[in-house]
Every structure is written in C-alpha cells, then in structure tokens.
Write a structure and sequence with these properties.
about 450 residues; mainly alpha
C-alpha cells in the first residue's frame, strides 16, 4: 500500500529520544548487519567529498582551529548560515559526521534533515552510505527514517530491509512508522495490519502508536485499547501515559483510572507512578490512597516506595505504615528499605531498632539483611537471625551467610559450629554459588 504524498513541509525531527524499547537496543545490531566504513584509501564517494578549501571533507572538517574547537562548532558556521553560502545538504551531513560534540553533531543532522524531500533524498543517502546501520548511530538513523517516513514511508521501509534483516530491520521500520503515523496514521495503521506484516505487528505497533499519539492522542488510545492484552500492549500503554502526562498529572491520572482492561490499567498506573513519585511523591501518595486494595495498583505502590525513599525515606515509611495490611503495604515498605539500606544503612538500621520484632517486621528485616550483607555479612547475619518466620529466616540466613563467606571465609567457619544452624544450611553457606559480573557489581 502506498501512502498519499503530503504537501511539502519543514519537518520537526525528534532529536535525542530513543526509537526503540528493549533496553535501548535499536536495529538488532549484532555486528553482522552494519555496513563497515570503507578503508580504500579515501576512494569511497564519501572520501571524495570536497570541503571549502578543496580537502577531503572527512579530514578537513575535523581539523582543529587555534582555540582547540572543531571548525564545525564555530558560532559563525551554523548550519543555516552555511546553507546561505551555498552548501548542499550532502556537504552539511558529511561535516556533521566528522563532528565530535554529540550536541553539535545531532543538531546539525536535525537541521540538515529538516529539509529532507524527494529532491535531495539521494544525496542524503549517499552521506549515510558508510554510516554503520546499528546501535552506535541510532540517533542519526532515527532522524533519517522519521523524516523519510513522512513523505515516502514504503521507500524508507524498503531501505530498512536492504540495510538489515529480521529484528534489526523490524526495529528500524518502527522509526519509519513513527514518522508516517505522525502525518497519516490511518495509512500507517493499514500497513501495520496488512496480513503480510502479521509476524511483526507487535513490534511495528510501537512506532505506529508513538507517531499517532503525537498527532491524535485520543485516537491512538482507542487503537491501543482495541488490541489484545499482552506485554507488548503494556509498553504501548507506557507510551500513551508519557503523552498524557505532558498535559498534567490530573489528565493522566483520569485517563489511567478510566481504562477498562486491568492489565492496561496496571501498566498505566505503574508508568505514571514511576514518572512522578521521586519529584512529587505526595501527589502520587494521595492519588493511590483510593486504590490501595486493587491488584492493578500494587506495582505503583512499589514504585512510590522506591522513588520516595530516595529523598525522604522516613516520610515514606510513615505513609506506608498507615496503610492497611496487604500487598500494597508490603511491596512499598520493601522497596523503601531496599533503597534506604543501600544509601544509608546506619539510619535504616536505627529505624529498625525502634520497631518491635515480629511477623510484621520480618520481610523488612530480610530485605535489610540481604542488602547490607553485600558489604558487611557479619553485621547482616545478626539481623537475619532476628527474623521470626522459619522459612524466611532460613532463606535469608543462607543468602547472608554466602555473602559473608565470600568476604571472610575464616570467620564464617569459626562461627558456624556455634550457630546452631541445621547441617544443610551450613553446607549451603559454605558453598556459595558463583556470581556473574553483574551480581558481583550489585552485591546480589
């Protein structure tokens, strides 16, 4: 299906936001999909591009002036001023490619690509020809595909399929769809829902909804609500939540509360609480009071506890201790203690010392002991042994003991005979599992 060709316009390019989800992974870059930069002694088309002084642009534009800054960064050499001096979009892009500063570099790409159209597309693609099609150049390609998607989306999608394959091409296509949907969402939706694209529809919806929401948030919301629930829909709800929050917390909260599907509502609540809780926890706390007994709000309470604890852990604890017993309270308190124990174990320990030991405090003691054991297993063991619930105590003592054993094997060996721990627990402590680099870094 071909999209209708819109009237010429000056494009508004997204500059520093990410095109993809999944940890920021962009084109599914695996080292094999990229087109490497030529090393043919400057004989590629890019190497032939001439600067104003006749030198190869890839060499000349990176040359430093007397003050140590690149020639591209000079105040009198802004893209719009250079354009008035007759430089082509192609020349601007080659100079931008050689710029070191990411701010100047991406600003220059955005300026050059804001005029992308059918007439200059070929010279723009020539400048991109040897730019690797992968994560390291995510932003440059996102701008190209977004701009191209606004006037020739099917051509841009063909380009993605030529430069990459599989998921790599799929992720790149979401960038095209974002630009396409920001101009013509109905045509973009029809393309996504074409049976030929069924295998990648869930991925393509990411670009479709992002672009559509920038043009018509209510219509994009109705589209997402019409989809079958799933993890991918949760990510789409997060995109919508971000857009609604731009209108203010009130409109975003009312939208989240109005969602009929529980899975979508949970995703909306979680995303909104994650955005707002650190800087304005009181607002989120007041909002969530009316949802304390609802399963869809549990993750939101956890987010509130974690974010609030970064600035006011005591106030956060006071709030959660007033909540009725249940999942929301326990998850929130656990989140607070995990952060608090990392940032200020002394203050967190003093707070615990003022509480009565018993079943209600057991989960908090377990969290504190586990976190502290990453740095001081001996001290953490005292807290672990204070847990009253037998199974939780055994799990925590084992975890804490293993961390302690890694830190000070001799002390643990001396302590175990007098610990009165069961034999299987002692053996587990003396045989801690091997940790990967991330576990060693985070003490988990």
């Amino acid at each position: 299906m071909n999209a209708r060709k819109p009237e010429p316009l000056r494009l508004r390019l997204p500059l520093l936001t990410s095109i993809a989800f999944a940890g920021g992974y962009f084109f599914g870059h695996d080292g094999g999909e990229s087109s490497p930069i030529h090393t043919d002694g400057g004989k590629s088309s890019q190497g032939k591009e001439q600067g104003a002084d006749g030198d190869s642009s890839l060499g000349s534009v990176a040359r430093k002036n007397g003050s140590g800054s690149s020639t591209f960064a000079q105040g009198a050499d802004r893209p719009e001023e250079r354009r008035t001096r007759g430089k082509s979009v192609r020349q601007l892009l080659f100079e931008a490619r050689a710029e070191y500063s990411p701010i100047i570099r991406l600003s220059a790409f955005a300026e050059a690509l804001s005029d992308l159209n059918e007439d200059n597309l070929e010279e723009v693609l020539e400048a991109y020809e040897t730019l690797p099609f992968g994560f390291e150049h995510m932003q440059e390609y996102r701008m190209l595909l977004y701009a191209w998607g606004q006037f020739d989306p099917t051509g841009a999608i063909e380009y993605c399929n030529k430069r990459a394959s599989g998921m790599g091409a799929g992720f790149a296509t979401t960038g095209v769809l974002e630009g396409w949907a920001s101009r013509d969402p109905e045509s973009a939706k029809a393309w996504v829902q074409d049976p030929e694209n069924a295998g990648m529809t869930r991925l393509y919806n990411m670009g479709l909804v992002r672009g559509w929401a920038s043009q018509d948030l209510q219509a994009a919301s109705r589209y997402v609500e019409s989809l079958e629930p799933g993890d991918d829909v949760g990510k789409l709800v997060s995109t919508l939540s971000n857009e609604y929050y731009k209108q203010g917390f009130g409109p975003a909260a009312r939208w989240a509360e109005g969602l009929a599907d529980e899975t979508m509502k949970e995703a909306a609540f979680a995303n909104l609480s994650r955005q707002v809780s650190r800087d304005n926890p009181a607002t989120v706390a007041e909002w969530l009071q009316d949802h304390v007994d609802q399963p869809y709000a549990v993750k939101s309470f956890e987010n509130l506890g974690k974010r609030w604890s970064e600035t006011e852990p005591v106030a956060a604890m006071d709030y959660f201790e007033e909540l009725p017993d249940g999942k929301a309270r326990s998850e929130g308190v656990d989140g607070i203690m995990e952060n608090w124990a990392k940032e200020d174990p002394q203050a967190a320990g003093e707070w615990l010392n003022e509480r009565e030991v018993g079943p209600a405090l057991d989960p908090v003691l377990a969290t504190y002991a586990r976190v502290v054991s990453g740095e001081d297993g001996a001290a953490a063991m005292n807290w672990a042994m204070a847990i009253s619930e037998p199974e939780l105590q055994t799990r925590t003592v084992t975890k804490v003991g293993q961390n302690w054993y890694r830190q000070d094997k001799e002390s643990v060996e001396a302590w175990l005979p007098q610990s009165e721990l069961p034999e299987d627990t002692r053996k587990a402590i003396q045989n801690p599992p091997t940790q990967n680099w991330w576990q060693r870094l985070t003490n988990r």
